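Re: beginner question about structure tokens

> Can someone show what the tokenized structure looks like for a real chain? I only ever see the sequence side.

Sure, here's an example I had lying around. Input first:
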Amino acid sequence: MTKEKKQREQRSPSLLLALTPIIAMAVFMGVGAIWLELPAEPMLILAAVVAAIIAYMLGHGYDEMLNTIAEKIAGIMPAMLILIVVGMLIGSWMIGGTIPMMVYFGLKIVSPKYLYLTALLVTAITSVCTGTSWGSAGTIGVAFMGVALGMDGINPAIVAGAVVSGAYFGDKLSPLSGDTNLAAAITHVNVFTHMKHLLWTTFPSLLVAAIVMFVAGRGVQSTGGRGFDKVAEMNNTLSQAFTWNVVMLLIPLLIILIGSAWKKPTIPVMLLSSAVAMFNAVVIQHFSVTNAFNAIVNGFDTSMLPKGFNLGPAAKDITSLLNRGGMESMMSTLLIAFCALSFAGVLSASGALNKIVESLLKISKSTGSLIVVTLLTGILTISTTCNGQVSLLLPGELLRPAYIRRGLHPCNLGRSIEDSGTIFEPILPWTAAGAYMAATLGVPTLSYMPWATLCWTGVIFATIWGYTGIGIRKLTPDEQKTMLAELDKEKEA
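And the corresponding structure tokens:
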């Protein structure tokens, strides 16, 4: 029986057959995950089953498919470990006071005259510090919306646009962001190299957003109002719950920055930062050792604060802001990554992945057209699947070989899938992010979309840089040779 399986003739798929599993995935995600609100993971497994049936029809055996899946997962396993350590880092920074301190001083600079600009920048800082766009919008963003509603002459749609832009700036440029680490993982790029390359599109987009917010705020005449009460309540609670030893609380952040600048291994740097933050939690914040260790596993929880501590009127906002982190918080991201890679692995085993890449290369003759194809693939994926992780994983896995064969560093791919997936999602009303932002901020998605300039200018800058060559990193001959060898090894496996 085994001999007969080995003798089965293997055939290459047609383009239509190669695209069938992807079409099936879009249908399963659209009907199952979006319409019926079923979990995304089983939908990806169903798509993998469709891909497996086609692979079997083309002469590929079960063991071959399983080995390819294992190879795909093994390839990003180091990055998966980084994601787990990121959860540990967030939990330790929370209980150690580093993140609460950043939020506290960020809220201190709120100004009525520059509310739009301040909302953009403070939310961006908070998101970089916490690594969560939804968390930043749901806490700091809601506080700014409260300020806007309490002031005359303020347009809530502009404030919402500023909050969304700031929140997703951090989601792209934070070493604590799950999406940032996932994009780096799928393209096999160091996370700090990935973040550095993202600056080519993200910083100009932030600059445009800042200019728009500054100009929009020039006509605001309000001098304040009841809206600032919420900000004051949050800051008052934070200052009572934590001790602001600025020097010690900044050390965990400095360790990350210095480690990145010196290009030190990511995991040891993050572990050292977490250890210092845990020291701060026990020695400076006076939490128990047990709570410090629980925070890095299960995340920080306000119930860890001293018994009888009153969170006051800002209890809901403070709890939503601080209750996060921990290695366990990364498990959902890891699960969907494994499911998506299983789907991609079967696609690869059947030869469908190569067929699709070949077809894409025929219509993308230049670097600029390849970037545009990547952007359109990302936008199409996020529009049909409405899942941010899937919109990073599938285009990243699909197009990485094309970039390497063209002599382009995969960090260009990582940047493009973030520009079209991560930050495009919140301006699409039917996606989870679009619905969440609209519900949380109290402004319809289409109303804040024109003002969320950072979310749609990224694709514009990415296209310009693609056709001009600005900010496009090329592979050296040695780098390309090494990466091509890795691709050949993956293909043989």
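Each token stands for a local structural state, so reading them left to right follows the chain. The two ends are 22 Å apart (CA to CA).
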